[in-house]
Design brief:
Blueprint (H helix, E strand, L loop, with lengths): L1 H31 L3 E2 L2 E4 L3 E3 H4 E2 L8 E4 L6 E5 H10 L12 E6 L2 E3 L1 H12 L11 E5 L6 E3 L8 E8 L4 E8 L8 E18 L14 E7 H4 L6 H4 L3 E2 L14 E2 L2 E3 L4 E8 L2 E9 L3 E2 L3 E6 L4 E9 L2 E5 L8 H9 L13
Parallel strand pairs: 2-7, 18-23
Antiparallel strand pairs: 1-4, 3-5, 6-7, 8-10, 9-13, 11-12, 12-13, 13-14, 15-16, 17-20, 18-19, 19-21, 21-22, 22-23
Amino acid sequence: MMSMIARSFLIAAALLAVTALPATAQVRGESIAVPTLRASVTVADDIVRVGDLIDNAGSAGSIAIYRAPDLGTTGTLPVAQVLNVLRTHQVIGVDTRELKEITVTRLARTIDSKEIEQQLARALEGRHGLGRAGNIALTFDRDPGDLRLEATNTGAMQPVAVRYDPRSTRFDVTFEVSNEAGTAPYKLRLTGTAIETIEAAVLTRNVERGDVLKASDVVVERRPKAEIGNDAAVRDSAVGMQMRRQIRAGQALRTADMAKPDLVTRDQNVTLVYRTSGLYLTIRGKAMDGGAEGDVVNVMNLQSKRAVTGVVTGRGEVSISVATPRAAPAADAASSDSAPVKLSSVAPNAE
């Protein structure tokens, strides 16, 4: 009887040992996946979880333990502090890999201020007399700066409300940026003033009436179109022109402010040039009028003392075109040839 009991006990012990083998193997297999700290972490939302900081976190991976840094920024966590926090959530035996700190970066989408201005100008383009987007100057009530959004806000800036008052030049525009995660889109409202500008030739110094502009006297700047109108001068055309009136430095030039420079002035000694077919003659004269190239002026012929009219063709030069006599008609020439020539002679008086 005792031997049968002993035999049954040995069989049960053997069965227990065989059953325990898989469990032991499983424990040994799990011990291989040791929780290990990461040196650097990137997160997409505003929470840092256990699974973000360590590999092989298991069921504890979804536990939130820290608030993430601000959008688009990076922060650091001391390893000693992280281990203490993990212990409170029964996460132990973590391999620190001798790390001293962990860097945490929060992903973000950045829309810089230049892109915001471009999108706003496009939204206002052509409204109530405003011209092309590239010619619109914007002033914000509050500078938007660079805009940082959640990384999931991947949509384009879409204007959903655009208001502009041409009298006050004020705008009020609202944009939306869609979120690929399906949450509500991000809304951005911008207010301020918008004016159309044009390139203008601006003086770098005070000028007097009669001054001839040099290249160093004029620069190109963008100025409000309403300030200049449609008569803005172009720099390349302004250089070499003569001022019709006095203007201060910093003012924009209009085409009406300038004229071609006088090449001949009143009472100036000039050269009169007579041009005709096969003839080129120069005579001294005195200008009775001033004028630019192409102007018609009166000149006193100093040789004949007669006033003549000519065209200014150069500095101190007035040209006079002499009409070439036309040939007599053929009929007249024929009658002239056939008509007899009468000669009369007068006898000399007798001495």
